[in-house]
Amino acid sequence: MSDAAILRSTDGEVGILTVNNPPVNALSAAVRTGLGDGIKAFAGDPAIKAIVVIGGGRTFIAGADIREFGKPPSGTSLHDVIAAMEDCPKPVVAALHGTALGGGLETAFGAHYRIAVPQARVGLPEVHLGLLPGAGGTQRLPRLAGAEFALEAMVSGRHIPAKEALSRNIVDKVADGDLLAAAVAYARELVAQGAPLRRIRDLPVKLGSPTAIEDFAKSIARKARGFKAPWNIIKTVQAAVDLPFDEGMKRERELFAELLTSSESAAQRHYFFAEREAAKVLDVPADTPQREIKAGGIIGCGTMGGGIAMNFANAGIPVTVLETSQEALDRGMKVIRTNYENTAKRGGLTADQVEQRMALIKPTLSYDDLKDADVIIEAVFETMEVKEGVFTKLDAIAKPGAILATNTSGLDVNQIANYTKRPSDVIGMHFFSPANVMKLLENVRGKATSKDVIATVMSLSKKIGKIPTLVGVCEGFVGNRMLRQRGVQSAYMLEEGALPQQVDKVIFDFGFPMGPFQMSDLAGNDVGWRIRQGKKEKEQRNVRYTGYVADAICELGRFGQKTGAGYYKYNLPDRSPIPDPEVEKLIEETSKKLGITRRAFSDQEILERCLYPMVNEGAKILEEGMAQRALDIDVIWVNGYGWPVYRGGPMWWADNVVGLKAVHDALLKYRDMSGDPFWEPAPLLKKLVQENRKFSSL
Ligand code: 3HC
Ligand code: NAI
User: Residue 485: how many CB atoms within 10 A of its CB?
Assistant: First the structure.
């Protein structure tokens, strides 16, 4: 027995090294050192003829220990471990189950042969952490599977199923049954055959077309915009094609080091842990008993209800959807079917799978059919009267212990809960549109929501493929509340001298998929217009009105893409936005009417005025306890609003890129320039700046 991180044992003449570092056998210093020592010990032991490396517990090795990045290196390096395996004078077999990812797969590449169970998946997902495979993966995968395949696999970072891995020579054998027994038998077979000690480094790189790398780079240009890692990965593959192995390795090291110290990778590593933390609720222990969810119910089969029902069906959970009329029900079910059929057309589902999913969604007009549902999600019109009617009925028919959820985007969840005699069973589940596609879920904790309901809904969210966060009851919850701040300032900037295309370009260049005006054109400008008319915001609010330009646009019937014009003109069918002189004129007239002399805006000012108020609102949200931690806000913005993940999220960005003091001082500057109390820094922000602390320290 060596270090506890690696267990040494033998089966006859086969030495076995079992990685023992739960939960995912990450390559900590102890694992690396133990593995290196184990290989050397067995290599020097005359009684041992072959070595098997296997993972203990649920998986092989999930990769480098991400928590060790940025700390001073200690223990044996992964390069040395892999070299020790590759140069071992006895056959080394890696036995894969669970996932062999990143440095885990690179470790397996050090072995002479690889065997896997059929359910195993392998991959080099470093790209998601803003990195590249830094222990030879970029040089060895092209040798095994060809340069084209390696590019696609490393830039997508996808998990490759064992069967595909076999067809690509990434594994040599797939075996059912007990993996260790199969691996030991395989090792014996190799010894008996006198099989060569096959080192991947000695294989030639396969390159199909001479322009393959260039073509690939072109094909990812749009998707990889703003990211650093995909481009460095491409360079490593070019090196694998052009250079001898050792020189290629040197190039890999340089390109890896460049990424490791980049702000993009720091942001993406922050995000990796943030997403996992966001699923945890500070005052709800992980072992809180959960309610069993075997069947769901959805009220309303419109835009949101239909998408939510699909999430259940996709996860194999039967769900009943209720509507007010047969016509609405038929319409809703037809949209669901069309969505599935479109996925099937793109090859994402088979015809049978479409039918299986449809069979899990039962349409109804009767509340009686919801009596057995364990969770019922309401997605009806956004008025309190309609919600009251629905929750009163649900209270009467739902079985005891059923979770009653609302998808409201703006109404008070506490008030909704009080329409029932069981407010502790009521919670908000704020999905984003399209609900079957968007990953984010803001689960909204009411005053009375019980802890087991929260625990159940957080884990149900994951089961139905979502990334859950927990927020409190406040106007717009977390995401929309912050978005509103950006909207206010973009509207003001139009009046003061900017144009939609200038604001949108700054936001697009920052890394968002589109700017606020393009987004508004996509969502429909009439939505906000109707709300403003309803609220009579102009008269009621003691703040500067935000809708002068927006109202004027809507008065011309320019509701956005759907009417062919909004803040932009649209050329159908490609729908690319075209700046419109008519809009420019309208904006200039609005400024004139308001008595504002238009001035030039720098891109920096636009960026600050759009994003710093969001950070300030985030501080207020934290202060009020509406989000658990700054990282939850980051997860919401990355998944719900297109905040570029390589900038970590608004709070991480403020903490680490801009600095809280710079944000604070800019807020004061704009306050003094405009005299608008909008810009007053949040008390929490002031306090953190005074104490020289970050949001992440809270
Ligand atoms: N290092 C440190 N901790 C890790 C880790 C890693 N590589 N991978 C997972 N963990 C932690 C998670 O943070 C989580 O911790 P928590 O319980 O305290 O929240 C715990 O392990 C379990 O992880 P998940 O909740 O994600 O478990 P799942 O079963 O859902 O998923 C997984 C397992 C598919 C392995 C997933 O964790 C994953 O994708 N991990 C990252 C894999 C990866 O990116 N590997 C490459 C690392 S970089 C590298 O290897 C560089 C090399 O080329 C030099
Ligand atoms: P929608 O108008 O597309 O769908 C609502 C559906 O509910 C309609 O099909 C209607 O027939 C049905 N309905 C109305 N009253 C009903 C009742 N009493 N019983 C059963 N069904 C009834 O609206 P949408 O967009 O799906 O919104 C639903 C809810 O989701 C709203 O609360 C909205 O605020 C919220 N939401 C909407 C988002 C969006 O982007 N559309 C995003 C997040 C939340």
Answer: 22
Cα end-to-end span (Å), the chain = 43
**Tokens linked to 229:** 């890692």
Which residue has its alpha carbon closest to ligand 1 atom 10?
24
Radius of gyration of the chain (CA): 28
Active-site residue numbers? 106, 126
| pTM, 2 dp | 0.95
Reported as a single tens digit per residue, the pLDDT across 575-614 is 889 999 999 999 999 999 999 999 999 999 999 999 999 9
> In testing the pocket of ligand 1, which one of 19, 31, 66, 462 has its CB within 8 Å of the most ligand atoms?
66
Compute, in angstroms, the gap from residue 58 CA to the centroid of ligand 1: 13
* pLDDT given at position 536: 62
ipTM confidence score = 0.96
- Whether 16 and 52 have beta carbons less than 8 Å apart is answered as yes
pLDDT digits (tens, 9 = 90+) for 505-520: 999 999 999 999 999 9
How far apart CA 310 and CA 342 sit, in angstroms, is 14
Nearest atom within ligand 2 for CA of residue 431:
43
Give all domains of the chain, ordered by start, each with its CATH number. 6-260 (3.90.226.10), 296-471 (3.40.50.720), 479-593 (1.10.1040.50), 603-697 (1.10.1040.10)
CA of 603 to the centre of ligand 1 (A): 38
d(CA 305, CA 46): 67
